[in-house]
What does this fold into?
Amino acid sequence: QVQLVESGGRLVQAGDSLRLSCAASGRTFSRFAMGWFRQAPGKEREFVATISWSGGSTIYADSVKGRFTISRDNAKNTVYLQMNSLKPEDTAVYYCAADTRPFRRGTISDDEYENWGQGTQVTVSS
It folds into this structure.
């Protein structure tokens, strides 16, 4: 079991940048692919980005490609989501998730992630 705690969400203006962090418990974090998802009011949860266990492979949703960057620091048991050029449509609760099957590349399907954080609110005003 991995416990995940997101932080960094806040109210920003369109065009601003923001970095979300997700701190994970446990000594085996470095073996797990990690993902970021988001859910806007009245909408289903959607994939944002994922990073492989090694950090060597990433996948992004088309809606954030070129603006968001996922990264990880295995020494700190933390995964990050750097968000640039934010838009009002990026407003959502952002969740990080862990695929605790070891040494995987990462997937866009939320069904593949067993552990989830509580979420952090990002609000982008126009």
Summary: The chain has no helices and eleven strands. The chain has a mean pLDDT of 96. The longest strand covers residues 92-99. The two ends are 39 Å apart (CA to CA).
